[in-house]
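Q: what does this look like with ribulose-5-phosphate bound?
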Amino acid sequence: MRITPSILNADFANLGAEIARIPDADAIHVDVMDYRFVPNLTIGLPVVEAIRKSTQQMLDIHLMIADPDRWAPSYAEAGAESVTFHVEAAKAPIRLARELRRLGARASLALNPATSIDSVADALGEVDMVLLMTVEPGFGGQKFLDLVLPKIRRTRELLGERDVWIQVDGGVSVETIERCAEAGADTFVAGSAVYSADNPNAMVNRLRELAVAACAH
Ligand SMILES: O=C(CO)[C@H](O)[C@H](O)COP(=O)(O)O
């Protein structure tokens, strides 16, 4: 069970210090948005390069951008250990996944809530992680969409014994993480739940404990 906090709700003026507040995170999840694929704009490659220099922690880049075929490889070249792109935006998802792996990164495919996992079954052998959006992409602080739970179960079924992580992203909190873990998710993005906590690192550990306990049932 991995907790990968999103820095979307962190203080962007003090990113290095904000990341240092969550030493027990399994990775730092960075939401890259471009005003085209989603109606929001966050940070891009220069900031990710700066983050790379400021931390040894695993960087888990989530590209919510148009034309990931063109831009995603640069994030792998910048030293990100994991690069996620959206299947709704990619022109050649399998070719892109192979290119990311060739560059030494884990390749990951993201799906919006309405996109079926069966529609990307052919690509599952080419990726290291599937990110299932549990809100519409674009903004932190939204309500978790329970309607995605059956898709988490179906993804686990399709993956079988393959060592591919299932990450859920959006509205993950102490109220919702157990449902996700029971359905088969093993990697959890939490933005507002972590950065609105008095002690973000304690929240990381609490979320992980809840996920582990939910799976032990
Ligand atoms: O990808 C995202 C939005 O598109 C964010 O990672 C996600 O929403 C996390 O924030 P929160 O935990 O506050 O929902």
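The mean pLDDT is 97. The first strand starts at residue 2 and ends at 3.
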